[in-house]
């Protein structure tokens, strides 16, 4: 019996050793199995004890041993029950632990959501602060513009005499936008130029680059006042915009280059050529850095700089700048783009001032081909280019070629106004030559007014047609055709008088054209200059 009990204890100790390497579930299952075995063993010992109670005293000793064994079994059962209870407790603790973990995960998720909400709220706050700062800046601009309203006058109430004075000064020939016409050679080098028209001003400044919306109003005011010759208002406005741009965007920014271009053109119209050249060189450097050396805006700045040098008589310095602008526009826009033709006209005029007539003819002829093929024979630029090419022929003594071009311009203007030419519908140059022939034949010329009032047609392409009339009249005088010359000169004079007596274009229409050139409202880009 003692051997059996010892073997059980050894087995129990070994099982306890193995239990240390078991999982909680395995330990509980083993404890339950041991408890069941101990229950069975106690039942056997109880039966043995009952059987020994009826025997002799010799077996009392055995009975005591059985009792001790039963007590050991009871002790083992107690330990098994304790282990089972402990396992149940651990299970409940683990369940509570899992529950707490679930709560922790939920709290972490809620915390992350709250962090996202906080970040979104901070972004909204920053956006609101930026909007407030922008509104404050716009408010400052509005206050500044309100402070200079006293300089503003109602353009719609200006007298016709003021309009006439400005109309006589302004040149409307946009081939070079800045150089005088060929019939004003005495003003070519050092004479003071009139303010640049708003449409041309916007084209020269904004070619290839869009002005930001927050500065358009200020830019438009600068261009408007500069086009009116009111530099005492335009210059402070321009400097204010330039200062604001450099504070917000830094000096090397395309918007700063655009503003430098505007200020340079204002200085140029004031004959402050040195200041204008410095600003244009600065703008060119910025645009080359930020937009690239082959950007249309770089070509526009090069062209403006070339024109500035041309106005100062520095034609050799201006020519390579103009050629570089031409190369950029050919590369970006194509060789047959109308803006390339504009650049060819500028280059031809620079070469003409250097007496490079062969190159001048090539440039004008190529520009003329582009205009006729892309814009059609009735485009005003066709007549202007023919007029300039004819002036080049005149300087070389090629009077026949010049006369042909002048007649083409006048004939086309007549056809657009009065229809197909026939025996009763003659262009003004033919009328002039008939009057010259009648004078030689000693025939009486009818009053000029009976010839259909051709002078009204001169307004079709004014001032190009008017200039053509004057140039062809001068050519007739060289040829001794004085009656024909007087006829054309009279027609040109009537055209100019009627043009100045007509009501000028409404201011709102002028602003509308300016806004279109700047890309405002309509969203269209300004044409390249």
From TrEMBL:
Residues 83-145 form a coiled coil. It is found in: Cytoplasm, Cytoskeleton. The keyword Cytoplasm applies. Residues 153-199 are annotated as: Disordered. GO terms for cellular component: cytoplasm; kinesin complex; microtubule. GO terms for molecular function: kinesin binding. SUPFAM superfamilies: TPR-like (SSF48452). Keywords: Coiled coil, Cytoplasm, Cytoskeleton, Microtubule, Motor protein, Repeat, TPR repeat. GO terms for biological process: microtubule-based movement. Oligomeric complex composed of two heavy chains and two light chains. Kinesin is a microtubule-associated force-producing protein that play a role in organelle transport. Belongs to the kinesin light chain family. This is Kinesin light chain. The gene is LOC114248232.
